[in-house]
Amino acid sequence: MPDYILAFVIAVGFALLVTPGVIWFARKTGALDAPNQRKVHKKPIPRIGGIGIWLAFMIAITVAASYTEVPDEQEFELLGLMVSGTLIVLIGVIDDYRDLPAKVKLLGQIVAASVLVIGFDVRIDFVTDPFGDYIFLEYLAIPLTIFWVVGITNTVNLIDGLDGLAAGVSSIAAVTICLVALQQGDLFIATLTACLAGAAVGFLYYNFNPAKIFMGDSGSMFLGFMLSGISVIGAVKSATTIALIVPILALGLPIMDTTFAIVRRYRGGVPIFKPDKGHLHHRLLDMGFTQRQAVLLMYVISALLGLSAVALTEVSGQIAVLIVCVVLAAVLFGAKKIGIFHMNTPAQ
């Protein structure tokens, strides 16, 4: 059995084992997500599931590191992912219990990203144009990488609105990056993403509709943070002629949903951080889809975007640009059709 497959199995197994304990602990300590006008669940649900995902990932990657050869230059980066990933989970757990103000949570995300980028030297040093020429970022490398990590962390956080949605989309994105890493011969990054996908899949057993537990901000921020960090340190960042296009497409659904939310709120004259009921999953529910149907449809969209990302690594730069343009055109057409740019009933 390949190392990355074994890592995936280990992560799934530990997520299945530890999540029931997290559910019990959440109920005992009052970490419950109460229903409100914006949310779709009808009764309080435990919401610190991110602890289970984090535990499963950490155990799996520790075990995997004992039988997988970790390149010397990536050992320090792996440590950085584990330290900063733990920090983002702690911030998320505090938010799950106390509902931190958006600006305070954002500051915590920036601190965690800075630990990874500055403390452990994980950053995007260059990008490439469609013709393969390198563009070195120099003094912009650190702020742009922090922006990337914080941005992706929030895109996954914001899409966590239906049972199993964030866990499933993150799993698909992790598998996509894993496949591209395997194409590039980077077994270390493949193993990392396999661990992350396994932790999310194991948790999904308890999180799919009807959910027994929500991942909370501790889980959604951890998944987004790890996906963004892994995509920076891996060979994936140079796997296409346009740097970072693979993880952008792999995470295309939450990225686009977040972008549409920003545009929608700006046009509606409301604060960008103010929640609303205009996200894609809300629109699908308004159109008559059940929770399961909406989530499964969004899985399919994510999988198609993931396949597009994998395909990009096999074509020329010009064809890659064409594929991206076609995908963007299709997305914008669909978004306009379902009215995602218009404000829906705001959250109270």
Explain what the structure shows.
The chain is an all-alpha fold. The protein has 13 helices and four strands. The chain has helices at 3-29, 50-67, 72-98, 102-119, 141-159, 165-183, 187-207, 216-233, 245-250, 252-268, 280-286, 291-312, 317-337, and strands at residues 32-33, 45-46, 126-128, 134-136. It has a two-stranded antiparallel sheet. It has a two-stranded antiparallel sheet with strand order 3-4. Helix 7 runs antiparallel to helix 8 (216-233). The longest helix is centred in the N-terminal third of the chain and has 27 residues, at 3-29.
Sequence-ordered SSE layout with sheet pairings:
Layout: H1 3-29, E1 32-33, E2 45-46, H2 50-67, H3 72-98, H4 102-119, E3 126-128, E4 134-136, H5 141-159, H6 165-183, H7 187-207, H8 216-233, H9 245-250, H10 252-268, H11 280-286, H12 291-312, H13 317-337
Antiparallel strand pairs: 1-2, 3-4
Largest sheet: 2 strands, antiparallel
What's the count of strands? 4
Instruction: Please trace the helix and strand order, writing H or E for each element.
Output: HEEHHHEEHHHHHHHHH
Secondary-structure-based class equals mainly alpha
Shape, per Cα inertia axes: globular
User: Quaternary arrangement of the chains shown?
Assistant: single chain
